[in-house]
Amino acid sequence: MILFHAAGASSQAPHILLREAALPFSLEHVDLLHHSWSGGDYRAVNPKAYVPALRLDDGGLLTECAVILQWIADHAPTSRLIPAAGTPARYRSLEWLNFIATELHKNFITPERHGGVAANFLSRTEAGQAQTRLHVAPRLAYVEQCLRGRAFLDGEDFTAPDAYLFTMLTWAGRIGLGLTEWPNLQAFFDRTRQRASVRETLEVEGPPHALLESRTRHAQDLP
């Protein structure tokens, strides 16, 4: 398998889960601004022009973070990264994946143009980041309540939605949205960051680019 990714992008979530699942894979870095990778025009791989994309061993391609996370989890059943199909717990897990994709992930994406083109990037202006924080904060407050008394979203076990949530929390740090007012989210973030799969992913990817000069330290501390 090949995971097409960019450092700190939403592709970080399946990168973490692939390591958690101990599935064999290789990485291909994508330059999202120029739509390029080592093989040329990335749009020839994924016409959507964003990451993640997962090239399967049979040559097929999967896109969309929530779907790729489900695929990875289903192909490592002994890792218990998603409940069994058809069970009530499975639908709760899918509920979380969809919430994170639509209510967190998409609300982080800025309408600003980068390099003269519209792109699926975080805001790079103070005004844009303030607007993002306004939309994202109530959603994080909801997750904070749901994490009360829980180690992870589905209870005591780390599952696919947790990898996605962790990546979104790194995005919060990159736009200056701290977690101090949400102790359950902060504890979740700290707990998840200590997992071997997460440490390995962060080390391999390295820090994403700083969005604002004043926030360079945050970008390095919360890749």
| Spatial ordering of strands, largest sheet | 2-1-5-6
Spans of at least 5 consecutive residues with low confidence: 214-223
User: What's the count of strands?
Assistant: 8
Q: What is the string of helix and strand elements?
A: EHEEEEEHHEEHHHHH
**Named CATH topology of the largest domain:** Glutathione S-transferase Yfyf (Class Pi), Chain A, domain 2
**Terminus-to-terminus distance:** 24 Å
**What oligomerization state is this entry in?**
single chain
Query: Largest sheet at a glance?
Result: 4 strands, mixed
Number of domains: 2
Q: Could you name the CATH class of the largest domain?
A: Mainly Alpha
What can you tell me about this protein's structure?
This protein is an alpha+beta fold. The chain has helices at 12-21, 65-74, 88-108, 126-146, 160-174, 183-193, 196-205, 216-221, and strands spanning 2-5, 26-29, 36-37, 40-41, 53-55, 61-63, 113-114, 117-118. The chain is globular, with a radius of gyration of 17 Å. The two termini are 24 Å apart.
Features of the shown structure:
2 domains, single chain, four-stranded mixed beta sheet, 8 helices, alpha+beta, Glutaredoxin, 10% strand, 223 residues, two-stranded antiparallel sheet, Glutathione S-transferase Yfyf (Class Pi), Chain A, domain 2
